[in-house]
Amino acid sequence: MTRPSRRQLLRVGGLSALGLGLPALLQARSPAAPAGRTPERSCIFVVQYGGCSHIDSFDPKPDAPAETRGPYRAVPTRVPGVRLAELLPRLADRADRFLLVRSMTHRDPGHDGGMHVAMTGHSNPTADTPYLGSVVARVRPAVRNVPSYVWLQNLAGDVQPRYLGGGFLGPAYGPLRVGTDLDNPAAPGFRVRALDPAADVPHARMTVRNELLNRLDPRPTSAGPEAALRGFQERAADLLTGPDTRRAFDLNLEPVGVRDRYGPHPLGQNLLTARRLVEAGVRLVSVTAWAGTPRGEAFKNVQTWDMHGEGAGLGSMFGTGAYGLGWALPNLDQAVSALLDDLAIRGLLESTLVVVVGEFGRAPRVDRAGRDHWPACYSALVAGGGVRGGRVYGASDRAGGYVKDDPVSPERFAATVLHALGVPPETRLGADRFTRPASTGEPILDWFA
């Protein structure tokens, strides 16, 4: 067996020699990237983890029996004939900016399985099927010196931590995750620690190590794996010592009035962070839509939308506690409305796809002041990224329990998101460039202008 040369060892160990543990930040342009001119778009993907009740938010049923329609009135929006629940007045006033999808559907009622289906865009994903963010990071990575894929706020323990990896694409295409439980940008003194070097490698020492590596292993002059790896090393050092990514995460650079418009809760401050990240060049930012806890209420977990009511000991889903729509929906209304306004003002809405969706909806019957998991029919909000607003796509039946018109499967939804981001769904991701398409669905072209 041939022993590796000193140069080979340096090439393999160069990243660890620098004290770098950030593979998610080091994506290079993939040879699988589609040829031709495609739009340079980003995505802010807001995940309503736990499953938001579509009937009490985006798809109200005012003519249904009381045990179905719930306590909230349906109010008119800026778009004639389209109504939302009364706890979403800001979004109602901006309905011309987004598309409502009222016919999302799949078959998995569990948090873990449902999340894996919804975030991979596959009705029957394998354990290693990557999330959409990893696919985008692989095929349409960031072109500036920032991460391609960031996830803001953790998902709680009811799901396996698949969202932190890259599936079969490998860990290099997993997200940089920032924010865990109470450690989030709404908390006083919050600081992003994900970009810190290893504890025993301060910036000064890392700089010395990088200079030493340059002397021992000069940058290759020809293209190929050696040049690509050396590029990874240089980019990693730039990410840790350079200002771009750190500046994008620094909310102290935002005017107080802007921060206030988004709201003083984790969802608001995370969405403001997401706007700063896409503005800096991050390709896809997933945001767990945790609204935090009301003042004086003890923190339990981040399942804001898992509203089973009194049967789960969480109180009524129609209350104003952390697990009540009276708390969660106004915060969502404030934060998403501020995001849409901000993107429009900055000229970023056309180049930024905004998605708001959970792993499923909620049952059409209220039971013990809550609603159970319901994947058969639920809703999503989609804006920007070339999507034509002021419309509704698909319809549920009278009770909101099943799709009536134009069902949107996980495959169709994923294909449409990828299409908006310039990724042809048929793009092959596997090593053989054949067996692993980015999506098996067909994009819904009617969503676009």
UniProtKB/TrEMBL annotation:
InterPro entries: Alkaline_phosphatase_core_sf, DUF1501, TAT_signal. It holds the Pfam family DUF1501. Coiled coil: none annotated. PANTHER family: BLL7424 PROTEIN (PTHR43737), DUF1501 DOMAIN-CONTAINING PROTEIN (PTHR43737:SF1). This is DUF1501 domain-containing protein. It comes from Urbifossiella limnaea. The lineage of its organism: Bacteria, Pseudomonadati, Planctomycetota, Planctomycetia, Gemmatales.
